[in-house]
Amino acid sequence: MELRRLRYFVAVAEEKSVARAASRIHIEPSPLARAIKDLEADLGVQLFHRRRGNNTLTWPGEVLLEESRRLLSALDNARSRVASAAKGYRGLLRVGIADSLAQPQMTALLAQYREEDPHTEIRLREMTVFQMLNAISNDEIDAGFTLYPKLSPGYAKEEVWTDRPAVAIPARHPLLASSHVSLQQALRYPLILCHPDQCAGGHMLINRCLHETKLSPTVAEYASGHESMMMLVAAGYGIGFGLESQIATHTRPDVVIRPVDDRFSDIKTYIVYSDRPIPQHVQKFIDRAKAVGASQS
Fold first, then answer.
1. pLDDT tens string 39-49
2. Domains of the chain: which residue ranges?
3. What pLDDT, in 10s, does the model give residues 49-91?
4. Distance CA 171, CA 177 (A)
5. Of the CATH numbers 3.40.50.720, 3.40.50.2000, 3.30.1280.10, 1.10.10.10, which one belongs to the domain with range 3-68?
């Protein structure tokens, strides 16, 4: 089997369409379709149930997809480690960041790690929490950060630090009369919330708190991160919810930050990794993350 054909197969399996896969990997649909046919002939199995505009995997196709991801991930990992070695690094740490996290604790952790382990290269990847979990499962990253509290079997998580929630309010807004804002007060106005896919962890936490109030919010917009949320707040679309430390890194003269009252629980950030035995350098990174959180609590 050619690796090129396996990459083509994975693209078609994920896109469920030859046309969409061809656009994604920048080739014409006809040679892509021929490559898949050649792969099926080589293996002696049918990989797809073919319907117009929707190719679904057969059972042999699902098995091949799992094995192809594992094989391609191992190859990409080997290339990454060789490239790191060529630059003089002795190790490689691959870290995923979900929920658009960019907290001061993260900055402190990465700076400390670079200072204490200059011979280990750190590679960061921004992704959704579900992409992050898949990447951990496929050995594409070593660990990842998220607000998402629920994990399936096969993963381990540890709390590394906590943050206080805060609201971002347009200047000259009635809520500015209070030094702290309650959830009930905030729900009187249109809200700008975390995007349910791009920031699944933050979205789940906000939804849980809203559910406890038994009130139905008016959602003006969903934002992919704190920066876009602050822009929408400044434009008068509504008030935004976010992490106090992270909102503070995107301050604007036309937006005021108010803490949420103490009845709102602290928001936990987790580091997630495989529940299989992990390398020593990954465990050291996890320990450092917990130490950074403890020092700033």
1. 999 999 999 99
2. 3-68, 89-162+268-295, 165-265
3. 988 778 899 999 999 998 888 888 778 777 877 876 777 666 7
4. 11
5. 1.10.10.10
Give the CA-trace dihedral at 175, 180, 182, 187, to 10 degrees.
Answer: 30
CA distance 218 to 190: 5
Higher pLDDT, residue 209 or 164: 164
DSSP string, 83-122: HHHHTT-SEEEEEEE-TT---HHHHHHHHHHHHH-TTEEE
CA 293 – CA 297 distance, rounded (Å)? 6
113 in Cβ contact with 142 (< 8 Å): no
CATH fold label, 165-265: D-Maltodextrin-Binding Protein; domain 2 (3.40.190)
